[in-house]
User: Fold this.
Amino acid sequence: MTQISHRREFLKVSAALGGALALEFGFPMASAAADGGAAGAPVAEVTAWIVIHPDDRVVIRVARSEMGQGTLTALAQLVAEELDCDWANVHAEFASPNEHFRRNRIWGSMSTGGSMGVRASQDYVRKAGASARTMLVAAAAARWGVSASSCSVDKGVVTHASSGRTLRYGELAADAAAIAPPKDVPLRDPKDWKIAGKPVHRLDTPDKVLGKPVFAVDVVLPGMLHASIAQCPVFGGKIASVDARDAQRMRGVKKVVREEGFVAVVADSWWRANEALKKVKIRWDVGEDGDASNATVTRMLRDGLAQEKLPQARSLGDVEAGIAGAAKIVEAEYRSPYLNHATMEPQTCTAWFKPDGFLEIWTSTQNGEASMTAAAQASGLPLAKIEVHKMMLGGGFGRRGGPQDFVRQGVAIAKAMPGVPVKMMWSREEDMRHGFYRPASIVRMKAGLDAQGQAIAMHTRIACPSILRVLMPDVPLRGGIDFTAVRAFSDMPYTVPNQQVDYAMRNGHVPVGFWRGPGQQNEFYRECFIDELAFSAGRDPVEYRLAMLAEGDKNRLVLEAAARAAGWATPPVAGLHRGVAVANGFGSYAAMVAEVSVSGKGEVVVRRIVVAIDSGHVVNPDTCRAQAESNVVYGLGPVLYQENNLKDGRVVESNFHDFRLPGISEMPKVETVLVPSGGFWGGHGEPAILPLAPAVCNAVFRATGKRIRSLPLAHHDLRPA
Amino acid sequence: MLELTVNGVVRTADVEPEMPLLWVLRDHLGLTGAKYGCGISICGACTVLVDGEPVRSCGFPASAAAGRKIVTIEGLSAQGLHRVQTAWIEHEVPQCGYCQTGMIMSAVALLAKHPKPTDGQIDDAMSNLCRCGTYARVRKAIHGLAGSPAAGDAGAAPERADAPPAPASGQA
Assistant:
């Protein structure tokens, strides 16, 4: 059975190569023992990506993180496809961030976000597989004294046809490793794929259903202690004073750590640490934002919209003249609240300052390199003295990439406990109130329509915090524009001749971050507003959009595919109402038809979602479908009831009782239509969330006649008038 | 000293009677399959079986489990995979997987009670929350198991002599 290898194969390899950074990995992972059979046997690193064992086991290293999106399996499929090995022998492991730095970033980017795991690494991982295959064949040819071109490969066996001789990869790996990699290798045409493009089973599923300790919160180390932390409830606040006398006396408590910005209790179990933390008397210096509320945010954003001159994210034609000459003008203001990621696994980091001067870290990170850098900064150690063990993420959604706050905290706590591994985990309450939230924003749109109702001008003004300014304060924004705040408008595919998009960056004290499909609130605004225009023109919303999409625009393909699959041409059964939306982002195109019902009490139930996605190529169709289902559920919460409100400078919501997650009974039927048109590589982790909110809200309009211009729906009275 | 029967093995832990079962399992007995998600008995990531009933172990005092049979994901099957786990692999249910051990425990209990559950029974029993959106596959996997032989159902089984030994690592 294929499975994840939790061992660091490279360690044995680099030791064999004399590269020898001798690390002792006391890693009590369940499968490490199962792996032990091969311990001591010679293994060969054919390329940096591929290690082959004498028994033909192929270990494929994956640099990106796995948070449920399936990248681990998809990347292994791409490597295995070109390597031409037996998929049943494939194991995957995460490439070591420490090794990565020591080998000049040999595995490319470790960043896992923007639906880029596959699309941004497919080229070089496929080449790694193809190079290794070429080297293995060359090794066989040399062994036999024949030309490589007279040999063929199938499922990890090299055959010399004319003599009938065969050699297995496991027998050739050591020889192949000594051969110089080819300079250039041809890659297979996707139409010839045998492993990629197929719905193979995920490599991470067996361990996950067995409950094996694959997550960062599951790490168990000898003598390990546990920590729970409290940060200032008002973002940016500081500690004024700490009285930990009562807490220190509590059972199991080892230490109370006071750091800049947080207090942590270290104890012999997490529960004891957290109970003691409740008894620590902390006086906070909340600073100047201690009275911030929803109204403060609204004022801030409205002030942005009130500015006459703003940086322009797009300027086409002459929007003023276009609106002045219009037969009809439609205007609307839309808004969205802040939103927490609420990963099921709270932020966590285990850190261990070992007696040999090495720092080891186990964490759930979307970016192993960023975790290394954060750990180096927090510890003062060089990167060479740090290792980050990338664990499976209990959800990521953008929370665990750019911000590495949890790593800095974990390191700071462990630094206070030298020689002792400490596992820090946030409580759910801490997690809910210390996120990097999806930005709250307000957008005003004004469109001029001609006599036929066609939009001839559209002016959009966006007031929104800048994610990039928060996460990368040192990187200048070109023209004062953060593309995550303006996307969907700055690159709107509709052929409106006169367009202007203004951006008012307004950053409050609430930290913002990449939240699955960053900027996706803009699709809610745009696609609902386009629906308003279609309605105003008395036109069908699918036909209206198609009329504004150029020939050959891939948005057309998915829109037509979704409409066809949903049966748009025939009306829904009584009591159901349909809405549509189309979007492109994260390399792909996604169109969606939502069917909803609204009860007499005004309760909205989303019954059916049909989504068509064009990602160019599809590496694992089953995982892609799972991602579509995932985007629907992740996006549904904010449509129905999720929001993060501000009061007294802090986030009001604290746990799943006031930040509800949709349950199984709220899951609509999701029908995913994959329409890969080839020629490009798009993502799957986020595109399908883009059209969800507008498709549902447009359906709610058809059901109730009420335009939804703010979310969540819980704030709207949808009872029939 | 608290005595608990976990996965057929009597274990002891020197803990406060009010410590939630979840933390005894995770931090004192080294069984990390049940997860912390909310701590307020809502999300169900911590679900284990106590006398065959699914329990939110984050809000269940360990002392209340004394003398009762506790089954965690680690003890679900003595023979490798439990049929629910097999179905979960077959239908590729998990994504991030964090909530799935709890999901699986709830499904085991549901199928023990209702071998052929209706959609309504699934909605009622599967109150576990999942952020990745695995619900459709959870439902499909459960329906796929409807009526299949319940052999090896630890949740429904009486005391087992063939229980796996407790893991050696993670003793506290």
Q: What stands out?
A: The beta strands of chain B are 2-6, 9-13, 47-50, 53-56, 69-71. Chain B has a mean pLDDT of 89. Residues 83-145 of chain B form a domain with the DNA polymerase; domain 1 fold (CATH 1.10.150.120).
